[in-house]
Amino acid sequence: MASHDESTSHHPELEYFGAYTLDVISSTAFGIQVNSQKDLNDPFVKDVASVMHEATSSNGLLTVLAGLSLITALSRTEVIAQAFVFFVAGYDTTSTALQFLAYNLACCPEAQEKVVQEIKNQIGDDKPTYEGLAKLKYLESVVMETLRMIPPVNTVNRMASEEVTIKGVTIPKGAGVCVPIANVMRDPEYFPDPDEFKPDRFVESADGVVNPFSNLVFGFGPRQCIGMRLALLQIKMAMVHVLRKVRFIKTDDLKDTPTLKPGSFLSVAERPIFITAVLREAASKTRVQHKVP
């Protein structure tokens, strides 16, 4: 991102955050080393990009994949489908979280500079490590508040293990239950002023301000997202490197609240969102606009 000069204008979404998360999930989940940040013509990158849109915009595929866990012996096609779900879960969701995080930081420069100061105070110019990233409590609260406002996945599905009645509604054993986590995390009963970006609500969560059952971005219980720690590590690692180099600035035409594409399983902006990235050591000289899908 920092390597582009003044002549750079708009860039496709696969660059930067999307390319970064693709590189990480390729190496951690499949042992395939790619560098999509510099080589978009890599065959593996092109194959993933060609089918990602169809997979993330169709609930039908995700519904089929969700039921495969009931099958004891998987066919070759089913194994491939299960492998592909790693990309839906590990690539697109983390990329989306990073993009909306950059959007929130552009809209809230006070929070952005507070994160930058925390990075300087806690790890300085050292290479970020797992232990170092764990010290960045305010950055984590900014990440969690972004995920609360715009969770990458809108719903979570569970199966009732026994019959239960809740407020007069009986859910029979074996019934599927769809929890609209995006609605829960915008409920003012659990999150006062839910439409406002307030990272401090998670700074205070150690005191019991945030009900853990209301923060469902990674699900809850034994079927909580298996990639939660990897996702948070990826997001914080990316932000440390990026915010050391650039400052995100809100463009004049940027709306306060992005409109999400209706009917999508994942949170996808209905229209591209552009923010400006300014090099910190040359803030008055270099401005690069980036598209946040």
UniProtKB/TrEMBL annotation:
The keyword Oxidoreductase applies. Keywords: Heme, Iron, Metal-binding, Monooxygenase, Oxidoreductase. GO terms for molecular function: heme binding; iron ion binding; oxidoreductase activity, acting on paired donors, with incorporation or reduction of molecular oxygen; steroid hydroxylase activity. It comes from the Eukaryota. PROSITE patterns: CYTOCHROME_P450 (PS00086). The keyword Lipoprotein does not apply. Belongs to the cytochrome P450 family. Cytochromes P450 are a group of heme-thiolate monooxygenases. They oxidize a variety of structurally unrelated compounds, including steroids, fatty acids, and xenobiotics. This is Cytochrome P450. It comes from Pomacea canaliculata (Golden apple snail).
